[in-house]
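Bug #77: duplicate submission created two jobs. Keeping one. Sequence:
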Amino acid sequence: MTDDRKPTWDEPVQRTRDESRDGSTPVLVQAGEPTGGGYAYHDMNTDGRPLCGAGDQETEYMTVTIEEARRHGKSPCQRCRQLPDLSHRE
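Kept job's structure:
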């Protein structure tokens, strides 16, 4: 990552290539048109919020599949993918 904490172009591309989960896996994107703002999709915690803590209580998210998120240029959230407790996945 660069100093301002935004990923370089290569980093999200590599995370997308490394994604091993099925395309039908549900993930979160920020609500909006066409499939939300931001560049990343997030894993969900048990409360249906981003696992990484992105956004705040006012930030709206919608559930889409990995396949749909990828079609709209989203890549996996780096923070969600790095969190050690992944037992809720799959």
